[in-house]
Design goal:
With 61 residues, the protein is mostly beta strands. It has one domain. The chain has no helices and 4 strands. A 4-stranded antiparallel beta sheet has the order 1-2-3-4, with no helix packed on it. Strand 3 and strand 4 form a beta hairpin. The two termini are 20 Å apart.
Amino acid sequence: MILRKLPRGTGPRSRIELLERRQTGDDWVHLYRAVYGGDTFLVSLGAAPDARIVELSIDSA
């Protein structure tokens, strides 16, 4: 899983929640809040109809 590649020292994953799901053309974009210890990240993942990842971003929240 891509979220396992976050910097060391972020602590154990305690929660991932879906914040938003929207369609952009044929693609679906999912926005998640991922909490690792005391750190929170916003993860945006876009997927094409054939399940290819077309967008991925991980930002501090």
